[in-house]
Amino acid sequence: MVGSDVPAKQNELRVGFAQTCPEFGDVPGNLERGRALLDSAPAFDVLVLPELFATGYVFRDRAELQSLAEDATGPTLQFLRENARERSAWLAGGFAERDGARVFNSAALVGPEGQVHIYRKIHRFDRETEVFDPGDGPFQCHELAIREVRVRVGMLICFDWFFPESARCLALAGADVLLHPSNLVMSHCQRAMVTRCLENGVFAVTANRVGSDDRGDVAATFTGASQITGPGGAILESAPATGECVRVTTIDVEDARKKRISPRNDRLADRRPEHYGLLTKENADPGAAPRGM
Ligand code: ACM
């Protein structure tokens, strides 16, 4: 896929998302449609697919999840490896990861030479807490070498957006771009990502899914509107709320390294961690805080 439209400027990369509509449990069909969507994409360097894009999201119970979970030799990782190699690009996407008796809601970042980085979702949403094991972290940043560009990327998965600490940890670890596979059911994330990107001075690629998982007594509908957000909070690309699509835009990685917001202010250097102790205290009791005069 790397061809004549390779960005001319130093530090420019093509990043994108695929917005998909998985059929619950139809792993081969979902991967086949994912491949067709990637075939229709303009050339890209890094592309993000949604959370759990091969299996679907609404598992009836842990036994059903275990029957669809896979390890690094499974079909989703194989799909990501093959497509990354064939397209000379990096791909990130979500999968149900089996590790012995444990099952995580994970994302894999896979490179053209078979490199694999895994992130296990730290903040589980709603019924996920009943079927998935909690991710064992940490939020991590990976440096990718793409042509002459060195870009640092970090993964978070869907509901992690709700916790500003997720994006902040990745920014502090040095991330330029947040890769954000999602299965969003609430409508606030896209607006929140504007703030997450602005306060950390990073890009974010939120790849959401569309459609519904209707499993009889449990169901969920997903909100689409995948989005690429810039470090100043600008929305660089966005998808409709319905329908599969793929979008790619060119970013200048250097823009995520300019952390100044005024001649005397820097997003990260101005932090006062000595006053943030409550953030790392487990189960801080809001009732114990002084309420003012
Ligand atoms: C979500 O975290 N998939 C809502």
Describe the fold and architecture.
The protein has 293 residues and is α/β, with parallel strands linked by helices. The chain has one domain: Carbon-nitrogen hydrolase (Nitrilase/N-carbamoyl-D-aminoacid amidohydrolase, 4-Layer Sandwich). It is built from six helices and 16 strands. It has helices at 27-39, 62-68, 75-86, 128-131, 164-172, 189-200, and strands at residues 12-19, 46-48, 90-99, 102-110, 116-120, 141-146, 149-155, 177-181, 203-207, 212-214, 219-221, 227-229, 235-238, 245-252, 260-262, 265-266. The protein has a six-stranded mixed beta sheet with strand order 5-4-3-2-1-14. Helix 1 (27-39) packs parallel to helix 3 (75-86) and helix 5 (164-172) runs parallel beside helix 6. The radius of gyration is 19 Å and the shape is globular. The protein starts with 11 loop residues before the first strand and ends in a 27-residue tail after the last strand. Bound molecules: acetamide (ACM). The site of acetamide (ACM) has 7 residues, from loops. Acetamide is lined by residues 51, 125, 158-159, 183-185.
